[in-house]
Amino acid sequence: MVKKLPALVGLAVLLVLPQVLGAEYSWLVLLLNRALIFAIMAIGLNLLTGFAGQISIGHAAFMAVGAFTSYGLGKFVGIPFWGALPIAGLAAGLVGYALGFPALRLSGHYLAIATLGFGVAVPQVLNLWESLTGGWTGVKPAAPYLLGISFREDRPFYYLILIALFIMAGLAVNLIKSRTGRAFIALRDSEVAAQAMGISLTKYKTQAFALSAFYAGIGGSLYAHMINYISPHDFGSGISMELFTIICLGGLASVNGSIVGAIFMSFLPKLTERISLVIQKSGAFEHSHFLQNVFKNFNQVLTGIILILVVLYLPMGLVDLWRKTKNLFTAKGVK
Amino acid sequence: MILAQQIISGLATGSLYALAALGLVLIFKTSDVVNFAQGEMAMFGTFVAFTLLTSVGLPFWGAFLLALIFAAIFGAGIERIVLRPLAKAPLISVMIATLGLFQIINGVAGWIWGYELQPFPTALSGAPITVAGIVFTMQNLMNIGVAMVIMFGFFLLFKFSILGVAMRAVAENRTAAKLMGVPTDRILALTWGLGGILAATAGILTAPVTNLDINFMATLQIKAFTAGVLGGFTSLPGAVIGGLALGVLENLVGQWNSQLQTPFAFGLIVLVLVIRPAGLLGTIQKKKV
User: Fold this and answer.
1) Closest-CA residue in chain A for B287?
2) Domain ranges (residues) in chain B
3) Where are the domains of chain A?
4) From A316, which residue of chain B is nearest by alpha-carbon distance?
5) How confident is the model at residue A61 (pLDDT cuts 50, 70, 90)?
6) Quick one: closest CA in B to A296, which residue?
7) Rounded Cα–Cα distance for residues A179 and A193 (Å)
């Protein structure tokens, strides 16, 4: 029980947080919604990259597939959000499965570059498919509606996302402990050794891709119906890079790390923006264009610096910080 | 005749891809790092050239040369400060570090030069030359010309100079090279410097066409990756061939539907990699178990 205490406290905070925040902090709830959706997708990417060892820096493409599948099913087929959400996940999963086959022959850098290309190409192809995606103009997915409750507001939607995150995280945690999860890890550590032990490379690599894309598809569908406005170019390489950054920052091969990373990466820009607003209000930098720019746009450079520092000093990610601090106070830390 | 025209324009774009890809492959081959910040290094160098041209008022070639010197120092500095401490880190960590570098260089450039799109002057202006019905614009001629000169100089350096031999030795086997008395650390920094020069050249040649802002290298960089993979990421001639081939093919596809250029480039990568996982001229190192 004591072991699970941090997780329980975290869950309790997540449950009450939107209720505690006043109306003037509504933007925070929206930000939190985005963070938790990214957490779902990051868990999926972590299954692929952290556990199965396959790099993908084009994951926003799967998110786009999920988002537009979900929108299209609601708009043209008349399937409500509740039905469209899992189908969107499956559709993205199918695309992921298909991408898994060419990826079978690739590894390391080659795979990274191929997925980068995939991530760039998919939004452009979707952009051409104007009847579904609206091209440059984009489309407006409707807010979900169930039993008289509209999920147009951010607070009800928050709980929807939280439930989804809970299910998906639980799924991932269990999967890692299953035969499939162990096969992923074995393939990551040595493809040759894993194959020698009878683990099918084809089966598990394509499964990893499909599974990871499924998570991204679910995230994409949730995102589309939360933002209520999507266009193919919202799913560019910037999002893919953000997801990749999240898992590396939070911690590779860690479900908790994915969630921590997603929250961190979503709040960092807002935090630096707030701080720089306060500094700017003092009017200290009115004479200097450079300093104004620095404070207006601090978060990108800060993200970069944090990334490099994490790689240098915390190779296991931010979750490792927790373990390290804990060790400071227990006998384990004493050498 | 239209076909010939398209091929010439394709070669002009392709030579820029080839330059950028050459920088990537050079760095990858010697230091085993896929440098995702390469495009941003090019962007930064181009902005330095831009400042020298507009604020300092240097003539084009003077600014060009100084910007290349800056790019070399910049590249070597990045290797020394960020990459060398990561020499023993796993592949993915190094990749993340270069993504971090991407963010830092892009952000700092925005601080210094702002976010507006700026026109970038070109060295040669003048009426296009028509030979046998094919139009050569000055920009195209310059792209092909400068790229050829740089690549040839590079080839000579790599093939015949003692520095080139040392670089090849480091690429082949770093430990063995070190045992033979090659100063591997210095060679790696030099390689990054050369990579910086190649990147900045590509940037300065691209800027007059696309105009200059902090994100102007994004598209070219993805094309450079494609070109590198197409040619085989471990082969320098492969990068050149990959770049030129991509430029020409893409131009031919663009003639038919310009929006399909990038999806086409991706389709090409997948196709080539499925048939030849190491690219056209690349080799795969088999891992011993």
Assistant:
1) A192
2) 2-218
3) 27-333
4) B93
5) very high
6) B111
7) 16
Indicate whether B134 pLDDT > 50: yes
* B96·A106 Cβ contact <8 A: no
Could you give phi then psi for residue A230, rounded to 5 degrees?
-135, 145
Q: Which of A106, A300, A315 sits opposite B107 (nearest CB)?
A: A300
Can you read off the two tokens belonging to residue B193? 């410097």
Residues 58-97 of B with CB under 8 A from A: 82, 85-86, 89, 91-97
Q: Which residues, in sequence order, are CB contacts of A321 under 8 Å at separation 6+?
A: A314
Q: Closest CB to A304: pick one of B104, B259, B260.
A: B104
Hey, what amino acid is at B166? Answer: A
Judging contacts by C-beta atoms under 8 Å, the chain A residues touching residue B104 are 300-301, 304-305, 308
CA B217, CA B18: separation in Å to the nearest integer? 14
* CB neighbour burial string for A269-288, b if at least 16 within 10 angstroms, e if fewer: beebeeebeeeeeeeebeee
What is the DSSP annotation of A9-42? HHHHHHHHHHHHS-GGGHHHHHHHHHHHHHHHHH
8 A C-beta contact, residue B25 and residue B198: no
Share of chain B above pLDDT 90, in %: 26
Give chain B positions within 8 Å (CB) of A237.
218, 222
Residues in chain B: 289
> If you write DSSP's letter for every residue of B245-259 in order, what string do you get?
HHHHHHHHHHHH-GG
Considering only the beta carbons, identify the residue of B112, B233, B274 that sits closest to A109.
Answer: B233
Chain A residues inside the 8 Å CB shell of B280 = none
- pLDDT value of position A334: 47
pLDDT in tens, B32-50: 888 989 999 999 999 999 9
Say how far residue A208 (Cα) sits from the centre of its chain.
16
Q: Under an 8 A CB cutoff, do A113 and B106 touch?
A: no
How far is A19 from A16, CA to CA, in rounded Å?
5
- Cβ-based contacts of B91 with chain A (< 8 Å): 108-109
**Chain A residue with minimum CA distance to B102:** A304
Helix (H) or strand (E) holding B63: helix B60-78
Q: What gap in Å lies between CA A109 and CA B282, rounded to an integer?
A: 13
Partner residue opposite B222 with nearest CB, options A49, A116, A306: A116
Grouping H, G, I as helix, E, B as strand and the rest as coil, residue A150 is strand
Spell out where A129-187 has E strands: 145-146, 149-150
Would the CB atoms of A312 and B85 count as touching at under 8 Å?
A: yes
CB atoms B96 and A193 under 8 Å:
no
Q: For residue A333, what pLDDT is reported?
A: 47
Nearest chain A residue to B215, by CA: A238
| Reported ipTM | 0.82
pLDDT at B180 > cutoff 90: no
Q: What is the dihedral of CA B2, B222, B155, B281, to 10 degrees?
A: -80
Cα three-residue angle B143-B190-B194, rounded to 5 degrees: 5
Chain center to CA of A147: 29
Domain A27-333 coded CATH 1.10.3470:
yes
Q: Could you tell me the pLDDT band of residue A17, with boundaries at 50, 70 and 90?
A: confident
Q: Does B256 touch chain A (CB under 8 A)?
A: no
Cross-chain CB nearest to B270 (options A114, A192, A193):
A114
Cα separation of A164 and A159, whole Å?
9
